[in-house]
Design brief:
Transcription Regulator spoIIAA, single chain, Jelly Rolls, 5-stranded antiparallel sheet, alpha+beta, Beta-lactamase
Length: 632
């Protein structure tokens, strides 16, 4: 690492790599480098020699690579040293056969049962002559025969293209290894003719065998293997390129046979100690997949008695134990889908409410609950949330589920949420869905499923309108029903609270009536702050323009409220727009008139300021309560 220097740190025995810009290197990267140093001392095993070209490999080559399901790659050692993929090609060709021919046609010719035998064993099902699984040579040759194409060249081109999709780059054949395999592959030829004898192959075996020899001779490196594994971990989509290599519904079938058969006659031991679907190759490669999380690629040519890389197996055991990668260890996120939860009693929409409405919402806000979910939503992640909502359903009228931080929502989770929403609707209650923009397929599934049952689901882009919808629902269901007044008289305005009739008369003489049409801009951000407005009829919204071009609502005001108050305190410029939502009538009090009021009637000015301060204090108290709720 030419751009870094190593600096020893005392405490915990940790050696920290620090870049010259002051940032430390990734601890994952440092750990992989440490694994390379440690396991390079293991010189057990021998390089494969039954294919002459493989015998030329340097037994000291050793590389490790990890690729996450979002495309981050860590690598150490000889991670870019090329070698041939060999038997690691088998699960990818099997997936291609499933895609080209369909599951039933493939299962009719290739089983899925582990054999406990070596990779080149002749293991056929009694009676049918079918290979027992696609990870032994007999099953892999049968899978190669099922790749679609009009000619051998067409089939090879299709296979190479799919393998390249997995790796995220164009892959080539190692011609020397291919020729060496083809010249010495007598046992595989015997297997091919045996398959022809049992009718598993229906044509001349030689073109199929040639394709099989070629697929085993594809040149890859650890970086490629890790991304190919990460593509399977990512549901068949390469996390770097976004290209789909295989249909998502076929990935479980591929991973299943890798789990039970991928490491040949040591598959049981592998699952016990490592616990990841995997495949090895006699060139020294090992590929492992942790579904939904990451892929691993390791290369070291020394093999054990099973034909698996000695260092590769040892490193995978270490990685699994260190990072808890065993597939039976469910991630905590699967049981913690809810990131935050609160009620309308603690957090409200940006619509400013009159005091009577606010008191009712404070008292009944617990009947509306909000749950923000995050991470990957699977059955295991959503089931605890569904169970909790069922338990509280008797005490709530509406539940909001926000998806802004949800990374993925699978079919099982979608079905659970739809079923829950329909059950709520059947009881006269509601589930509201928010921020499904990143999951259009989920939104379509929910809305279409609800429509088929005669239910219209409330779905909102953002949380604020969803909260307002819930508030209105609670207000409409209250007894007696409360609604915003269409207009107010000056005596009833918040600013005039506590004024005597003669004081109200004086203030009225300083006010200028104003009328605005719907969507008229009343205050423009950046203009001089010279007036305070008393809203008498209609509604206005205070908004700010965001850098992405969208307009964000700060608040919505109703008759009896004021806006532009900072004009009487801070004689600067407006910091937001105010636009009429409906036809609006209001009074404007200029800063000049307000100043004169302080000279002629200071008591009136004090009353106005006290009322303004009371409103601001109420808003700040509410904001503090909401911040405390979100931080808890």
């Amino acid at each position: 690492m030419s751009t870094a220097y190593k600096q020893k740190r005392e405490g915990r025995g940790i050696q920290v790599d620090q870049n010259r810009n002051g940032a430390i290197d990734s601890p994952i990267q440092a750990y992989l480098e440490e694994l390379c140093r440690r396991f390079a001392k293991n010189r057990d095993g021998d390089v494969a020699t039954y294919i002459p070209e493989l015998a030329k490999a340097d037994p000291e080559w050793f590389g490790i690579s990890i690729a996450t399901s979002d495309g981050q790659v860590y690598e150490a050692g000889d991670s870019r040293q090329t070698f041939t993929i060999q038997s690691i090609s088998k699960p990818f060709t099997y997936g291609l056969a499933l895609e080209d021919r369909g599951r039933d046609a493939v299962l009719a010719k290739i089983g899925v049962e582990p054999t406990g035998d070596a990779f080149n064993s002749i293991s056929l099902a009694p009676g049918t002559g079918c290979p027992l699984n696609p990870m032994i040579n007999a099953g892999a040759i049968a899978a190669a025969s099922l790749v679609a194409g009009r000619s051998p060249a067409d089939k090879l081109e299709r296979l190479m293209a799919v393998f390249s999709f997995y790796a995220g780059r164009h892959l080539d054949l190692d011609v020397a290894v291919y020729e060496s395999e083809s010249q010495t592959g007598h046992r595989n030829r015997a297997i091919g003719h045996m398959l022809r004898n049992f009718g598993i192959l229906t044509e001349d075996p030689e073109p199929v065998l040639d394709l099989y020899f070629r697929q085993c001779s594809i040149a890859v490196d650890c970086h490629d293997l890790a991304l190919m594994a990460a593509t399977l971990a990512n549901g068949g989509v390469n996390p770097r390129t976004g290209e789909r290599a295989v249909r998502a519904d076929l990935v479980p079938s591929i991973l299943s046979v890798m789990t039970t058969c991928g490491m040949y006659d040591s598959a049981g031991e592998w699952v016990y100690w490592v616990g990841m679907p995997a495949k090895s190759g006699v060139a020294g490669g090992v590929l492992a997949v942790l579904p939904g999380q990451l892929g691993i690629g390791i290369f070291s040519p020394r093999l054990d008695a099973h034909g698996n890389s000695v260092r590769g197996v040892a490193v995978c055991k270490e990685l699994s134990q260190t990072y808890n990668l065993h597939l039976t260890r469910a991630p905590r996120a699967l049981h913690a889908a809810v990131r935050s939860r609160y009620t309308l009693a603690s957090i409200s929409s940006r619509r400013m409410r009159h005091e009577a409405e606010r008191k009712l919402l404070d008292a009944d806000g617990h009947r509306a609950r909000v749950y923000d979910v995050h991470g990957d939503l699977t059955f295991s992640a959503v089931e605890p949330l569904v169970r909790q909502l069922v338990d509280i359903s008797a005490d709530v009228e509406v539940v909001v589920i926000g998806f802004r931080r949800a990374e993925h929502v699978d079919d099982a989770a979608s079905r659970l949420l739809l079923d829950l929403a329909l059950r709520f609707a059947a009881s006269g209650k509601h589930i509201v869905f928010v921020s499904l923009q990143r999951h259009p397929g989920v939104r379509r599934f929910l809305e279409e499923g609800a429509a088929a049952s005669g239910v219209r689901l409330p779905v909102f882009r953002d949380i604020d309108p969803a909260l307002e919808w819930c508030e209105n629902l609670l207000l409409r269901s209250s007894t007696p029903a409360l609604t915003d007044p269409g207009s107010v008289q000056l005596v009833d305005h918040n600013i005039c609270r506590g004024m005597a009739p003669q004081e109200l008369h004086v203030l009225e003489g300083l006010l200028e009536p104003r009328r605005f049409g719907a969507d008229d801009l009343i205050i423009r951000e950046g203009d001089a702050a010279q007036e305070i407005y008393l809203l008498m009829r209609g509604e206005v919204s205070v908004t700010v323009d965001l850098p992405n071009g969208q307009r964000e609502r700060f608040s919505t005001l109703a008759p009896g409220m004021a806006f532009g108050e900072l004009a009487v305190v801070n004689r600067g410029v407006r910091n937001a727009d105010v636009r009429a939502d409906t036809e609006v009538e209001c009074y404007a009090l200029s800063t000049a008139a307000f100043d004169r009021l302080g000279e002629t009637h200071p008591a009136i000015k004090i009353t106005v300021l006290e009322n303004l301060l009371r409103n601001v204090a109420r808003m700040l108290s509410r904001a503090n309560q909401e911040l405390a709720t979100l931080a808890s």
